[in-house]
Design goal:
By secondary structure, the chain is an alpha/beta fold. 50% of the residues lie in helices and 10% in strands. Bound molecules: guanosine-5'-triphosphate (GTP) and magnesium ion.
Length: 331
């Protein structure tokens, strides 16, 4: 799956420092007298030291998506994954650190230019290394935070806003990922235990010459939003922002480990949370036994009923929206 955010790796403070030292060792220095050469070498060396550190820091914050202009789906996901304010603060720390490195290097340059003794030059270089190392130590936790965010963001699928999207939702272990596997090329992990799916995954299928998106989501428990965990909240973000149709999957066979009453309660909760979104309610695992007799049945595993479900889903997606009341005639 291709993630929407292409973010370069976030280095550690130690890696940045190491890059600085390696670059600084290449400095040669020119001049007529030994003192001129020592000074020129020190100036080159500290310039070479700061540059990869500043570039490394800058690369992290310029490659991050610009938070204020992110489309709402990604923005809300970022809020769930990492917190927008926290992400901004940590990016801000990197900007601060880059400025500090620049400023300290300029200070050291001035001192070295004015130095009459080799000892003074060496002292200024060493002092710069120490100051930069402590600036980097101060932002190491920000780098760690952003490294984690980068890892999470790389898993976020790129949703094409021009394609219609079906989001598969339901309790854990009911077969959502199996269904996404059966009807698209996406290969989310299917497993016998609940909470297998921790991230949103996107697949595509084509029907009647039109391409559609289908999204797999983590399982939801029947509980208030306030007590939902981060993984569940990702599912809600997808339902809120990308679902043109929600396919709600139930497992009436008892094999998921979640009683049908709980699944029904979750379903009615989602209906009231997303009143404007059309739902298709489907009972899965038809190969294992009878269902409630009140809904369409499929077996995501054997494929039984899946084609019919797709046709119904596409029909629901492409049927014209109910005509709005012409202006001037409403109440
Ligand atoms: N017999 C049978 N087993 C199924 C069917 N669909 C899924 N399963 C099994 O049910 C288990 C859970 O399937 P998943 O697709 O991982 O379920 P999920 O809803 O994605 O689960 P979470 O990601 O944990 O929420 C796996 O062991 C699947 O093989 C089906 O139609 N018939
Ligand atoms: Mg799953």
């Amino acid at each position: 799956m291709v993630g929407v955010f292409r973010l370069p790796p976030v280095p550690t403070a130690a890696e940045l420092l190491d890059r600085g030292f390696r670059a600084s060792r290449k400095a040669k220095g020119t001049g007529r007298t030994a003192h001129d050469r020592a000074r020129s070498r020190a100036l080159q060396s500290i310039g070479a030291f700061g540059k990869p550190i500043r570039t490394g820091l800058q690369r992290v914050y310029t490659s991050f998506p610009s938070i204020d202009t992110l489309p709402p789906f990604y923005r809300e996901l970022l809020e769930v994954i990492a917190g927008i304010d926290e992400t901004k603060q940590n990016l801000g720390s990197l900007r601060w650190a880059r400025e500090q490195v620049l400023k300290r290097t300029q200070d050291a340059r001035r001192t070295i230019r004015a130095s009459g003794f080799k000892e003074e030059i060496d002292r200024a270089s060493r002092a710069l290394h120490g100051r930069v190392a402590s600036v980097l130590r101060a932002i190491d936790s920000s780098l760690t935070f952003l490294r984690k965010v980068r890892g999470d963001l790389r898993l976020v699928p790129g949703v094409d806003p021009d394609l219609r999207t079906i989001v598969i939702a339901g309790s854990p272990n009911v077969g959502k990922s199996q269904l996404v596997q059966t009807l698209s090329q996406a290969r989310p992990t299917v497993a016998t235990y609940p909470f297998t799916t921790q991230d949103l995954a996107l697949g595509h299928f084509t029907l009647g010459g039109r391409r559609f998106q289908v999204m797999d989501t983590p399982g939801l428990l029947d509980r208030p939003v306030s007590s939902r965990n981060q993984v569940e909240r990702k599912a809600l973000v997808a339902l809120r922002h990308v679902a043109d149709l929600i396919v709600f999957l139930l497992d009436p066979t008892g094999t998921s480990g979640y009683p049908l009453e709980d699944q029904e309660a979750l379903l009615s909760d989602l209906h009231s949370t997303f009143p404007a979104t059309p739902f298709l309610e489907v009972e899965n695992k038809a190969d294992l036994g009878p269902g409630t007799g009140t809904r369409r049945r499929i077996s995501a595993l054997t494929g039984r009923g899946v084609d019919r479900l797709l046709r119904e889903a596409v029909q629901a997606l492409t049927s014209p929206a109910p005509a709005s009341v012409p202006r001037g005639r409403a109440g």
